[in-house]
Amino acid sequence: MSMKLTIRRPDDWHLHLRDGAMLRAVLPETTRHFARAIIMPNLVPPVVTGADAAAYQGRILAAIPQGIDFTPLMTLYLTENTDPDDVAQAAKAGLITAVKLYPAGATTNSASGVSDFNKVRDVFERMSEIGLPLCVHGEVTDPEIDIFDREKVFIDRVLDPIRKAHPNLKIVMEHITTEDGVDYVKSADKNLAATITTHHLIINRNHILVGGIKPHYYCLPVAKREDHRLALVAAATSGDARFFLGTDSAPHVDQLKETACGCAGCFSATNTMSCLAEVFEAEGALEHLEAFTSLNGPDFYGLPANEERITLTKGAPVAYPTKINSDEGPVSLFDPGFPLHWVVQ
Ligand code: NCD
Ligand code: ZN
């Protein structure tokens, strides 16, 4: 029997589009289904000022396939030198939708991130005043802390103090990977939400490490134990307005993943909606897919939900390409490891 699901057009609240040839290759994979996306600013060099964001926005707009309606929601990369006035001006001009906090060294291209959180207090204060959300990569970088504990320790050591010092700051904990993250978000009555990626709903750390190392499942924050994955699935499929989709689709050419020191990132833009429909159906929660992909995000950001609809249908397994090509080289698509039956019409 064929099944059909019509939902509002989705948005992606955490996306890496890169630049140049990679941007041109991956952008159509997102714009095919998504109406808007929060664009990560971790280019080399990063998108630090309003002027940088305007220039990057221009390059993205120029790369959108003809006839497709897509809005890139720009972000600034917070550094210890970020000027609160520049942030406020860019927000007022409608140029940026959020500011991104990377602890220095936490992930790909995060060397210019923040080490001393006291140095960015003025920026947080200004953002609180104007209602501009802070997107947080929630992992400590202390070499003493085990990589599997870095999210939990970040909550205690960094995030909770920031929230206490700036209770009016709207914060998105991005790509949460732990039950601790889920519980922390649920403990807040306002101004805190979390994005969850497609791949963290599907893989646990065994997928990366059992039966040979699988570089295409390596991303940051790294996938955790199965209990944590189950907590993420429960949160995402619950309909709770504090959880929404941020794919963290993060393309790297295969050459940079399949190597002795491979880059972190899963590229999932192409098949995300099919993967999510499968996950939500397995939980008996298809009626909450729209909240996760299309309603909760705009609600938190204070934006209207998209008016357009998409329809997913269920049928025989869909064949997705294993890779997409870019002028920089092939990029492997996230492989959920099970057949995908849902397709966006
Ligand atoms: C991201 C990237 O490649 O830019 N990688 C990842 O594993 N998610 C950076 C990030 O979001 O941490
Ligand atoms: Zn990311």
Major sheet strand order: 2-3-4-5-6-7-8-9
Question: Unreliable runs, pLDDT <50, ≥5 residues?
Answer: none
- What is the number of strand segments? 13
Give average pLDDT, whole number. Answer: 97
Strand content: 15-25%
- CA radius of gyration is 19 Å
CATH superfamily caption: Metal-dependent hydrolases
Number of domains: 1
Number of helices: 11
Topology order in helix (H) and strand (E) letters: EEHEHEHEHEHEHEHHEHHHEEEE
**Cα-to-Cα separation, first versus last residue:** 17 Å
The CATH class is identified as Alpha Beta
Portion of residues within helices = 25-40%
The major pleated sheet works out as: 8 strands, parallel
Architecture per CATH nomenclature, i.e. the level-2 architecture: Alpha-Beta Barrel
Structural class: alpha/beta
CATH fold call: TIM Barrel
Shape: globular
Describe this structure in words.
The structure is a single chain. This protein has 345 residues and is of the alpha/beta class. The protein has a single domain, classed as TIM Barrel, CATH 3.20.20. 33% of the residues lie in helices and 17% in strands. It contains 11 helices and 13 strands. The chain has helices at residues 20-31, 50-63, 84-92, 121-130, 150-165, 179-187, 205-209, 226-237, 254-257, 272-282, 289-301; strands spanning 3-8, 11-15, 36-39, 71-77, 96-101, 134-136, 171-173, 192-196, 243-245, 309-314, 323-326, 329-332, 342-344. The strands form 3 sheets. The chain has an 8-stranded parallel β-sheet with strand order 2-3-4-5-6-7-8-9, sandwiched between helices. Strands 1-10-13 form a 3-stranded antiparallel β-sheet, covered by helices on one side. α3 runs parallel beside α4. The radius of gyration is 19 Å and the shape is globular. The two termini are 17 Å apart. 48% of the residues are buried. The mean pLDDT is 97. N-carbamoyl-L-aspartate is lined by residues 16, 42, 107-108, 137, 219-220, 248, 250, 264-265.
